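Input record, target 12 of the design panel.
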């Protein structure tokens, strides 16, 4: 089975966001990076599928050429090969442009099953997976928390606001992975050493014009300082009034 895990390199969750001088982007100088958490779930499920069904796992990402450290970590956790679609403007691509570029590459690779994260932890759009599947004309199941695969088809359980929904689908398909699907493994010394010898290729993505652009970026306004409205039971009426009239939460 030709399995692909699409991953995204994102700033670490403890990174301090600073607005760049142009007022339209983030200052990336000094930022540390990681693989988005939900994409770690996608990688783990891809590797588990290979272990159960056979085949090969390709790790696919779009990003800078200097982002290979995080991709090597994916190879250390069980990926067989990796490919980076090198795009210096990767952070400014909208969901449509990213999805179209990934779809073109996935189609050329002849993938049978593609795993992606339900969202990337930097943008939180949850759009690239379904868009890529639409461009490919493939099945797509989002927010998957359990998965069973057969010959040319599968059954997935997905988390919805109304509860757990069971979906049957045919291959090829795009699966976006949610918490609960698996527990990502840690890389060990053997995997780290093996990753150094695994192929990691770079190629140019299909360049697609953005349909959306960022007009401006600004930090959130500072929080107002807290205040004490009273002491003991006598403060309750004032607290309720503040919550109702000022905070608008009651």
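The sequence produced for target 12 reads:
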């Amino acid at each position: 089975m030709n399995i692909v895990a699409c991953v995204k390199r994102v700033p670490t969750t403890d990174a301090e966001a600073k607005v760049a001088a142009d007022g339209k982007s983030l200052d990336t100088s000094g930022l540390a990076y990681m693989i988005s958490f939900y994409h770690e779930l996608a990688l783990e499920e891809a590797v588990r599928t290979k272990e159960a069904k056979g085949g090969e796992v390709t790790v696919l990402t779009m990003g800078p050429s200097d982002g290979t450290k995080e991709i090597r970590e994916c190879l250390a956790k069980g990926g067989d090969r990796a490919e980076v679609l090198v795009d210096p403007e990767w952070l400014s691509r909208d969901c449509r442009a990213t999805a179209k570029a990934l779809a073109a590459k996935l189609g050329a690779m002849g993938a049978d099953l593609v795993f992606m994260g339900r969202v990337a932890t930097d943008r939180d759009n949850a759009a690239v997976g379904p868009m890529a599947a639409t461009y490919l004309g493939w099945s797509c199941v989002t927010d998957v928390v359990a998965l069973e695969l057969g010959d040319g088809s599968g059954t997935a359980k997905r988390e919805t606001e109304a509860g757990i929904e069971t979906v049957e689908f045919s291959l090829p398909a795009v699966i976006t992975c949610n918490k609960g699907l698996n527990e990502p493994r840690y890389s060990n010394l053997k995997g780290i050493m093996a990753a150094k010898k695994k192929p990691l290729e770079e190629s140019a993505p299909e360049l697609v014009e953005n349909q959306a652009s960022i007009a401006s970026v600004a930090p959130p306004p500072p929080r107002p300082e807290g205040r004490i409205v009273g002491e003991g039971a006598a403060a309750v009426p004032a607290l309720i009034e503040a919550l109702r009239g000022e905070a608008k939460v009651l």
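The chain has six helices and eleven strands.
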